[in-house]
Automatic annotation (TrEMBL):
Gene, per the UniProt record: apaH
Taxonomic classification: Bacteria, Pseudomonadati, Pseudomonadota
InterPro entries: ApaH, Calcineurin-like_PHP, Metallo-depent_PP-like
Calcineurin-like phosphoesterase domain residues: 3-173
Keywords linked to the UniProt accession: Hydrolase
Role: Hydrolyzes diadenosine 5',5'''-P1,P4-tetraphosphate to yield ADP.
Protein's name in the database: Bis(5'-nucleosyl)-tetraphosphatase, symmetrical
Positions of transmembrane segments: none
Enzymatic class: hydrolase
């Protein structure tokens, strides 16, 4: 049995199937997915259906595009230029797919391995992050989920404060775990830049560049940041979004030996926007 972590698929269904063929994925194996299963690529519906059918073989965390799909479906978001989620919204099994997606975690922690879409804010330990993720997951799985989506969008508050409550608390937790790239020394979020590491906004650094002794012995697997093209420069932090939807590649990492597998994208080469 092997476990493979796959980066952001974003509706690149054909590439996902090619990657599963490459790794000879079998019924004895498991998949960990970094989120952003859907949107921007041409096969969002097929991707979502295929992953759901894998059932207990797959653990996927929620990404910002997955949450955007849910918000639009529930009437609290609007489609943006470049979105490719209409086929899901029109599908006869739409409600079933959305219910399944809404019950996915924001963070998975297993044997000191962390799976998360955007990363861990350096002001939190892994256990802190898991606890805060569970707070938001409880809301998403409750009868209050529409209130969550009604207030999900926004960049404020931009820094963690323990006294935060309600929608403001849910939003900052969500933004750390699904949208973060660059942060300030106290955990201040900078959510506009999608650039490479050497082009950080003044006063900010990549979240994984801040030392956190409480992460010692952990390995963190994340997606979201296509501009990294799989490179963090850290031996225990693994970037798996290699920009398939932007024309680069779709990548899997086998946890047992840290071996990488990639298939080329079939999408036109573009720049993330």
């Amino acid at each position: 049995m092997a476990t493979y972590v796959i980066g952001d698929i974003q509706g690149c269904y054909q590439e996902l199937m090619a990657l599963l063929d490459l790794i000879q994925f079998s019924a004895a194996d498991r998949l960990w997915l970094t989120g952003d299963l859907v949107n921007r690529g041409p096969g969002s519906l097929a991707t979502l259906r295929a992953i759901k059918q894998l059932d207990r073989q797959v653990i996927t965390v929620l990404g910002n595009h997955d949450l955007h799909l849910l918000a639009v479906a529930y009437g609290h978001g609007t489609c943006k230029r470049g979105d490719t989620i209409d086929d899901i919204l029109a599908a006869p099994d739409c409600d079933e797919l959305l219910d399944w997606l809404r019950f996915r975690p924001l963070l998975h922690l297993e044997e000191r391995k962390v799976l998360v879409h955007a990363g861990l804010p350096p002001i939190w330990s892994a256990d802190d992050a898991l606890g805060f993720a569970r707070e938001v997951e409880a809301v998403l799985r409750s009868d209050d989920y529409l209130r969550y989506f009604a207030s999900m969008y926004g960049n404020q508050p931009d820094c963690w404060r323990e006294h935060l409550s309600g929608p403001a608390r849910w939003r900052i937790i969500t933004n750390y775990l699904t949208r973060m790239r660059f942060v300030g020394p106290r955990g201040e979020l900078e959510l506009k830049s999608k650039s490479e590491l050497n082009a950080a906004p003044a006063g900010y650094r990549a979240w994984f560049y801040y030392p956190n002794p409480e992460w010692a012995g952990y390995r963190i697997y994340f997606g979201h940041w296509a501009a990294l093209v799989g490179h963090t420069g850290m031996h225990d932090v693994f970037a798996l979004d290699t920009g398939c939807v932007w024309g680069n590649s779709l990548t899997a990492l086998r946890l047992e030996d840290q071996r990488l597998f990639s298939v080329p994208s079939r999408q036109p080469r573009t720049i993330e926007n």
